Structure formats: structure tokens, C-alpha cells
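Sorry to interrupt, but I need a hand with the structure work. Could you add the entry underneath, on a fresh line?
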Amino acid sequence: MTEQYPFSAPTVSKADPLDGLLQISDLNQPIPVGILIWDGARPGYLIQLRLDDELIGEPSALGDQLPGDIIQLQVSHLLLSESRRYELSFQVTNHINGVVRESSAITLKVDRTQPGATLLAPLIFPTATFSDQLTGLLPGYAGMQQGDVVQTLLNGSPGPNHTVTADELTLRPVEIGFTREHLQPHAPGMVSIEYAVTDRAGNTSITSLPTLVSVQL
């Protein structure tokens, strides 16, 4: 049975400091973990990571590191295959008397879910009237979250983008404005307006169904 000790918690620079979210692009290789050497550390002490309270990897023996130094261990990306939260800590074993002490844990979050699942509805344009801006309303989609980036496409070319805010999840619809500058290169004629969503973890959706808009400027 381990005893918790006031070590500094491990650090993962690739994780979001707010909620521990990891980028999908970083989950193709081991995730580096920093361990701050504490006062009283001695050569030969064994450090080993714990993921969800299970020991992982091989123990690493301290050498001549000094308090304040940081050593790097790794979490195998193969252990982070599921979309969920993980608790990461480490334990230290005194190699002489066998006493084991454990650090506090940090949260890592893995999200591999594609926004919108298999369908993104087309943008809705409540009015065809255009003055300085044409406003499109974004229907809700599966897995919509604060921080999602919606990138529009006009005839396949990038248009305006929008980052989803917290109140747009419950209080008001997402509005995306298309200015004269956005539409001018496609006038006159029909413009196919689509969009795709990239979430905070870097998961990218399929492209939405198109909306055809007649542009006469």
C-alpha cells in the first residue's frame, strides 16, 4: 500500500493546462512526462509512473539529479487509446528500505470522437437579403462543444470561420457572417456553401451538406 507524499504532481506539457486535453496529433507517439526532483531525493530511488492507479512502464533510478531538476519519463500512447479521462501520478520507492510513496495525480483527457458523427446539416440562411453581410445559422450537430472551430467553404475555397462559445451551446444559435468581401469573388452566380468542424483535440468532421446561394452583387 502506497503512502501519498507532497511531491509536485507530474507535468505533461502537451496537455491543455485547463482540462488535460491531449491533441490527436500527439497521440501517435509516447507522451513525455516531467518529474520535478524534490528535497530529500537520493541516488538509487526508483520512480515509476501510475496511470489510473496502475503501474506502467519500467522504474527509473535516480542518479545525480539535484532538487529542482526535472527528469523525463513517458506514457505509451498505446495506453491512451480510449476516449476518456485518465489519472496520472508517479510513485517513488526507497531502494534501501522498500518504503513507497505516491504523488498526487493530474488528469489527462483523450477525445478521439469526430464532430458531427456521420452527418452535418447544411447552413441555414433565413433571408436572402444581402446588405453588408449575409448571415448563416449553424444547426446543432453531434458532439458540439465550446472551442470547436467551424470553417466554411465557398465553392471549395476557405471562407469565414467561427469558434463556438459556451452560450452558443444552449442560449443562442451559432451565426456566421459572410461579408461582401467573402462573396464578391463568386459573383454573379450560385455559390455552394459548406463547412467542416475541428474540435479542440484536433478531430476533424466530414464536410457538411451544401447550401446553394445565388450571389448577385
Summary: The chain has a mean pLDDT of 92.
